[in-house]
Amino acid sequence: MTSTETAATTATPSATKVRRPGDIIFKTISTTSGALILAILAAVFTFLLVQGLPAVVQPLQETDDNLRADAGNFFGYVGPLVFGTLWSSFLAMLMAFPIGIGVALFISHFTNRRYSGIMGFVIDMLAAVPSVVFGLWGILILAPIMGPLYEWLGEHMAWIPLFAGGATPTGKNLMTASIVLAIMILPIITSLSREIFLQTPRLHEEASLALGATKWEMVQQSVFPYARSGMFASGILALGRALGETMAVTMVLAASGAVNFRLLTSENPTTIAASIAKKFPEANGMDTQTLIAGGLVLFAITLAVNSLGRWIIARGSQK
What residue intervals traverse the membrane (predicted)? Predict the structure, then answer.
């Protein structure tokens, strides 16, 4: 046998790729699942675009008495809703993110295993509570409790612009809605951050402690740098939940469509999702298309926020 034949004989087994049925089935299922997600996303976008675009481009008629006529045009209608959506979500994130990170850090590094397991279970159960239950709790329990506090803030802290304009005694204002939103997104931030903190290399933590660092200094030197991207990702996911929340905000917030930053008055901005939930059952004709166009705007906002978050996380990972 020549050297050429020997090489060909040796190369033949390695060149023949064995395709097992299990590999083929798994690849088919995973590929189909990935394509299905993209197809559903594209279908939702197409539906919103086709159904909502007429409300955006159609000129306002003199006899128009729909939602667009109340605000002058579609953008006049959706503008205050975009403001309310972003402002309430920002307030919720401002409250929930530091608390969620703190709770996750306490569970992962500052308590023993028995209590950490119990607290982790409670946090996970909190994520399973339906939003309508949070709305009922907010309107029946939280709002009456916070009402006197809001009145005190409106009376003694009115020099702060956020608390100016007086306070509604019922407690149905943007502050209560933001607190309910913060509680709803808290489990997302806590659960994801806790898992990221637990994945910090043990050798990094022990090396920091061996050099004389306190436990908090060890967290600053080892845990936070390692978990920075994961913490940011948890915040982005929580923000996406806050942007699209419907029932809790609808039930708690006494909305008037105003555009202002005050938190305690009865003249509160509302959100896109809450507006759709309130008005869609009685809408017809152009009103329906206007509400669907509002959903298209909310879809675009959520997509932009998540895309920006992914881009920032990718840049942080590269660095």
Answer: 35-57, 77-106, 118-143, 174-192, 238-259, 291-313
